[in-house]
Every structure is written in C-alpha cells, then in structure tokens.
Amino acid sequence: MKTYNDTRLLHGGDYNPEQWLAHPEILKKDFELMDKAHVNTVTVGIFSWSTLEPEEGVYHFEWLDKVFEAMHKRNGRVILATPSGGRPQWLSEKYPEVNRTNILGQKHHHGFRHNHCYTSPIYRKKVQQINRQLAERYGNHPALLMWHISNEYSGECYCDFCAEKWRDWVKDKYQTLDAVNDAWWMTFWSNSYSSWSQVVPPSPLGEHKVHGMDLDWKRFVTDQTIDFFLNEIEPIREITPNLPVTTNFMAEGHDQQDFIPLEGLDYSRFAEVIDIVSWDSYPDWHNPYEPLHLTAMKSAYIHDQYRSLKKQPFLVMESTPSYVNWHAYNKAKKPGMHILSGMQQLAHGSDSTLYFQWRQSLGNSEKFHGAVVGHDNSEKNRVFQEVATYGKRLDTLAAIKGTPKEAKVAILFDWESNWALKRGGGFGRPTRRYIQTLQENYRFFWERDIAVDILTPNQDFSDYALVIAPMLYLMQEDTMKELSEYVKKGGILIGSYFTGMVNENDQLHLGEWPQTLQTIFGLLPQELETLYPGEHNQILYQGKSYQTKDYCGIVQETTGKVIATYSQDFYVNTPALVENRLGQGTAYYLAARTDLDFLEVFYQPMIEKLALQQEIVKDTQPKVSIQSRTDGQHNYYFLMNFSEERQQLELLQPLLDLETNQTLTGLLTFAPYEVKILKKEN
Ligand code: GLA
Ligand code: ZN
After folding, report:
1. How far is CA 664 from the centre of its chain?
2. Mind listing the pLDDT tens digit for each residue in 8-35?
3. What residues does the ion ligand 2 have nearby, CB within 5 Å?
4. Exactly one of 18, 318, 386, 674 is catalytic; which is it?
5. Nearest residue to 239 (alpha-carbon basis) of 165, 128, 153, 379
6. Tens-digit pLDDT profile for residues 281-331
7. Does residue 679 sit in helix, strand or coil?
8. Cβ(281) – ligand 1 distance below 6 Å
9. What are the CA-CA distances from residue 434 to residues 253, 422, 466, 490, 594 (Å)?
C-alpha cells in the first residue's frame, strides 16, 4: 500500500490561484489567511489546464511554482491534480474528437467541463503529455503530497471510438455472437445479432433497453473510465513511483431527498487501482424533510462505504464550509454544524477535511458556492472563523491520523445488483430502493453506535459476526458458495426478497432457486408480491404485529423454521421470516420489507447475543452518535450531538478528553452540535 508521508490530519482544499493571477495582493493574502485558518494542504491544478498550457505545447508553470514554494515555506503540502476534468478551448477546437457524444449521437461543443470522450486517442495523448510535464516539474518537490487524478470521473460517450471499444469489449467477453445472443436473451423482440457490426451501444433514451446489454454497458463504462484513468497515470507512475494517487469519488441522490453513493461507476473496481480512496461529501444539513441525525446517518453510511472499499482511512477531498450552489435551495450550515460535520468525517475514518473551495470566485457558475474566504475577503467572516477554529482543533487530534476502524457487522452492497435492479421492469419500480433499504438496516446499528463495514460481495466477509445482505439480487456462484461457507463456520446471515433472483447476466434460474441458496436459507421462494404505496400487510412475530410495505415475498420453508408469518391476504399464515441453521451458523430470510420497528426487534437480540453494544456510555441514544477509531493501544471515541438540543450521556468509565487532556467521568453534557473526542488506553 502506497501512503503519503505527513503525520497531520489534512486541512485545506481546492485552491484556484489561476483565477487571481492578475491580483498579486490576493495571492499574498491567501497564504496569510491559510496560516490563520490552520490550513496545511491545498489541492491545485484541477481546472488549470488553460493556464498551464495556454497554447498547444506552450507551458506556464511559474505561477504554480510559487504555490509550491509558498506552501513548502510554511510546512504545508500540495495535492497536485491532473487537469483532464476541464480542457482548454484550443484542444476542443483543434481536435473535436475529444468532445463527448451523447446517447442520441450528438457531438457536444467544448461546453464547460467533465465532458470529454474517454476513448479518444488524441485526448489520451494530450492528457499524458500535460501529466508528464507536471510529474517532471513537481515530482521531486518536497511539498508534493499526492496526486489527484482528474476530477469526479463520470458519464459516458457514444462516439465512434467508444462504439468500437464497446464492440471489442463484448467480443472479448463473449467470443461468439451466439454467446452474446444467449447472455442477453436476444431472440426476444427479434433482437438477435447476426454480425458483429450490429453490436452498437445501447440506444435510444428510455426504458426499453436490453437488460443484459444495459448491465454489460455499465460494466463497460466502469472499465473504460478506469482505462482512461490508467492511461492518465502512466507517466505519473513512471516518474513518481512512490507517490500515492487518488481520484475524488462522489455521492448522489439529493434530488430525491436521498444521500447515497454514486451509482453509475462501480467504485469497488475503481478502488483497486488507486492508492487512497477520497470523496466529495455534501450532505444536505438542515433540510426540511428529515431530522438532522438522519442526514448524519446517511452521511455516515457513505463514509463507511468508501472507507470499506480499501478498509483503510480515506480522505474527504471536498466538502463545503457553508453552503453549496447547486441545490434549488442552498442552505448555510448553522454555527457549529461545520465543526460537527468535519468531526464526523474523522470519526468514520477520514484523515482529512478538505474543502471546495478556498476562495469564492467573483464570476461564473460557482460564485455563490461556499468557501473558506468569501467575497468580503475577510477573516472576520463567520465561516472563516469557524474553519479556523476547526483547523486549530485538528492540530490537537493528529494522533488519530492513520488509525483504522474496527467493525464486526458487515452490510453487503453490490453495484451490479443495483444496476440490474434499477433497470428491470416488473414489481414496484419506484420502490426498489436497494441502497436506501441498506441504509435503513444500517440505521439500526448507527443509532446504537455499532460500527459497520459496507463491503461488496467480492470482499472477504468471513470474519464478521453478522453479514446483512438484503436484496442481493444478482448473485455469482462464487458469492453463493462464500455465503454458505460463512454460515457453516458460525456466521449469521440476513437475506431477503430479491436475494439471488438472477445470475450475472440478469437472467432468472429455470426451475428452482439455486440449490446453494436453498441450503443456506432453508426455503424456496414462490412469488414476490408488490404492494402499492400506502398498502400494507402485517407480519406476526413473537406475538406482536408489524407492518410490511412495498414487497411481500411468498416462500415455502424446507429445512428452515418459520418464525414470523403474514396475517392477511391470500398468503395469510405463510412464512414472512425463516430461520435456518446450517453448520455452526444461522441464516435468516426476511421475505417482506418492513419498517424500522420490526428491524429493531429482529436485530436487538442478535447484538446482545454477539455482545456488539458499545461499552462507554450507559444508554446510547440516536441523536448523539458515537464512533471510534483505534490503533490497538488506544481507542479514540467521537461523541457527536446531531441535534439542536442539549443532550446528556453518562460515561461508564473515566476517559481522557483528547483536546484538553482532562479526565472526564460521569454525566457529560453536550451543547447543540457539540463534539467531544475521548481517548482510552487499552
Ligand atoms: C464538485 C466538484 C467541484 C465543485 C463542487 C461544488 O464536487 O468537484 O469542482 O464543482 O462540486 O460543490
Ligand atoms: Zn467517445
């Protein structure tokens, strides 16, 4: 594993001096203000290509040299970005092939940013050239900390280069047209291919896409994005083999009042080719549709998922010190919220709080986006002050840098299942909500301060006490075998409706559910009943009734023991929850979607039996989140009040306040949004 050599938590972020080269007084002030804000790291060059190379082959680095020097002088570090996220006008004009083509086949003009063709040979060459220049010039600079490759890779291209790549990809995977026709079930609607030339990208827009093709297309988009990335880092690996590379991942869902990992790219595959995972975290704090602690829960989920990609500390590459500009309504963080949200990043394993952006621009599309330094250009500004206070606190927390988190509970998430579930017709389309369902399960543990790793089925889950894998719709044979081994060796596994429904081509199994799954869960799924919004059934569990929603799977138990049944409809009295002992372990199949009240009674005895509860405060409560990191010798606990009210918690043992060095005992009081970081010697 390649890592960077700095012992501090990184504080700083996206810095765009290229917008201010005509204002030397601003540049000078920037560094003075950075010192005051306890900034130790800047990320530069992300959108600097037209300044770095204003004409083809003509380079200007002096301004960037100055940034390196200024940072070095103050013992600060530079994260250097490659500029491929936004290319110069001359490049788009001279080589139109670099511009992206949309799904309707329309070639874009230069546009704004994030809109290149990732296959274009010229673009790949030009990107390598500028990256080589940067690596040669700054590769040995002592201030250089790591590489930030491009920016927020996403999207797809439908140009002829990409179409040809796609055809090669399909050929390579399937070898024969018969195999493609089989895998994608192409006799349906008379789609069968009779020649390779017919293999073109999915089109047009709309719901009717060949399911197998669409799934493979998404795999291809991930592959081609990674391939572009690998092309970018060739000169970088050659010239700076010891420096780590990262690229900033994203989240999405804001338009649906959700906050979930990016769905379009399989980040578990991307994580394999980068050294450090980083992401851009923009939770919708203070939104009108949920209490603050639920926003915190969703944000925690994504932190945990991205940390789990490598099971290593990660970086928050971007976050806003106040508000964003791309919502319909862009709400500022209230006083205290910035520090709380930053500490939450650390609590879940981040070694940084970096911002978009250091300084607000005067014009163009992000002029109203929050920044450390606002248009008032003043350190008296509330946001600046809060950032500075936070930076100062970070200085006292350096001990946690690099410390991992430990979890005994794993939730399995699979990008491919998500793609396939979202594509498929049938059942309730708006209610699939795979990731949101995982978050609902995660919520139970988060509210009880129990750490969770979120893994893909390809990661090793054999050592976890509990593996929660609802809606794992698309399942490879290997995964079934590993789940079976896991249970046999003593694990507890949770499956559900949709689990193991299709194979890797999104095709159902003829006849019965795969034998391995039958053996694990001790049942045979029969039907999947869809409920309308507002329609419910009830399940009877340990003498009490719980409401179901969206989906009620109808199953026939075999070796499994029925521990809950439906109380209504044509499947009344049939199993809703089946428990199956296999080897040393137990698998549960929850056939219906329920509310949290049921998950609570279902999971509570498990966490007690497995002794998963936290041990530092008397009664946990949802609004004060406790997360910990450990280096083996010490545990570091973050106690975070995600509410507008004062809260109290009773410590079960004396712990040291890491920032004040005072020993705390008994009742602790938390002001709204307050965070305490406590330390325990092991
Ligand atoms: C993304 C981008 C940044 C900036 C921010 C605004 O994360 O990477 O360049 O546009 O969004 O929130
Ligand atoms: Zn293309």
Report:
1. 35
2. 999 999 999 999 999 999 999 999 999 9
3. 117, 119, 157, 159, 161-162
4. 318
5. 128
6. 999 999 999 999 999 999 999 999 999 999 999 999 999 999 999 998 999
7. strand
8. no
9. 13, 9, 19, 27, 13
